[in-house]
Amino acid sequence: xxxxxxxxxxxxxxxxxxxxxxxxxxxxxxxxxxxxxxxxxxxxxxxxxxxxxxxxxxxxxxxxxxxxxxxxxxxxxxxxxxxxxxxxxxx
Length: 91
What we know:
By secondary structure, this protein is an all-beta fold. 0% of the residues lie in helices and 58% in strands. A hairpin with a 2-residue loop joins strand 8 and strand 9.
């Protein structure tokens, strides 16, 4: 089984961040710039729009980040890659 990796140069996600993911994959390992990591899944909400569920994790500085669901503001395919622009995190 192939583990798909998304690299994020920061220790957390935020609205407007663009994630570069392999197209056709919906389960990822997110590796953050501080060497922390979390599992993520690309899902669909009740209306069919894409959302990203990011599992809880701890940053290298010890900050605990709870599991969150992020809206996806934009999803654009470029060859074998998918660029996801995050919207806001859902409550």
